[in-house]
Amino acid sequence: MTLDEALPAEREQDLRSRVFFVDEAINDFSLSVGDEGINEVTLMTGTPVDESELGRKLRRLVEGQLRDMRTVPAGQVWRSSHPAHPRPDVFEDLVESGAVAELGEGQFCLDQSFLTLMDYLDGRLREIVRRRLHGREYRYPTLLSVDTLRRAGYLSSFPQFLMFVTRLHGDVDTYSAFLNEERGSADGVRDPLRFCDNSDYCLPPTMCFHTYHQWSGKAVPSMVVTARGKSFRFESRYRRSLERLWDFTIREVVFLGDRDHVLSCRETLMNTVFELLTELGMAGTCELANDLFFSDSETSPQTISQRMLALKYELRLPVAPDRTVAAGSFNFHERLFTDSFDIRHVDGIPAYTGCAGFGLERLAYAFLCQHGVTPKGWPPPVREHHERARV
């Protein structure tokens, strides 16, 4: 499909990260990049499609979301002193050994050895939060109300990632009709949503929204909250090994309070995490970034302001010679969530929030890509923890 006007070459990654969300029929694509930029997109589908309709959707993405995006220079705040030499075929080795097993799209079963590594890394992060930031830990439920995500602005910024939860309509006629269809056909119920009548809850895309809900309408002191929990994002065909999952685990840290407190906590956490990664012999960088907004005229400025105001830093770790993964992020929200959730400071001054999140599967996977799957080659503290866990 030839674009009406070439898309600037600097928009290539933005386009690549969105193409699979154009239509579920797309199972592969390629871009033609010339001197003037990206002038042609080739879409491969697994089933016959209306090409004109698919072209309309692609042009809607390009013209409505990417054409007017401004390019903001990147900024790097940390680079590890360790060289990057990620090992090839680590994921294949994990699958072959049985340490990892795919159970569904973007869903993996992890064995004790991998979980022990995840728990070690998470424990070090948790220790930093509790000792250096005096954080208070909570355990949140999995389900999150749709209203909470709406108040947070997530529904209008990231609709492509949403995963809703529903249930059968609560009456005996519905249950009977459902049972009759399930038992009366070899294929069972073909369209279960016909029997459902609830979409008030969703699977949480990250853990921090539970914290804003928890303190909604309250006056809070300056404090730090941390939690570990499962998070869920629909990643379409962007799912890849343990780098990008639909179902993953996050260690979340939320900073609440006055502006100086929030920014100071974020900086302390960043620097201490950099020290931890250096201790563990891991290569990586931390740089300015922006979220993958489903951009339009309203959300495009958010992408720009995130970089211009240094609201988001991303921790990127090498997992292949030509690829890194975002294993964590450090964010400053200004008053976005305190205003949305009516969170006030006990001292009568404006309240701010920030957060940091670490994908534990990604972090452990990056560690294995850099140090290998055999504990003998791991740094002593990690190897010793692994040996103790085996006893």
Automatic annotation (TrEMBL):
<protein>
    <recommendedName>
        <fullName>Aminoacyl-transfer RNA synthetases class-II family profile domain-containing protein</fullName>
    </recommendedName>
</protein>
<dbReference type="InterPro" id="IPR045864">
    <property type="entry name" value="aa-tRNA-synth_II/BPL/LPL"/>
</dbReference>
<feature type="domain" description="Aminoacyl-transfer RNA synthetases class-II family profile">
    <location>
        <begin position="229"/>
        <end position="375"/>
    </location>
</feature>
<dbReference type="InterPro" id="IPR006195">
    <property type="entry name" value="aa-tRNA-synth_II"/>
</dbReference>
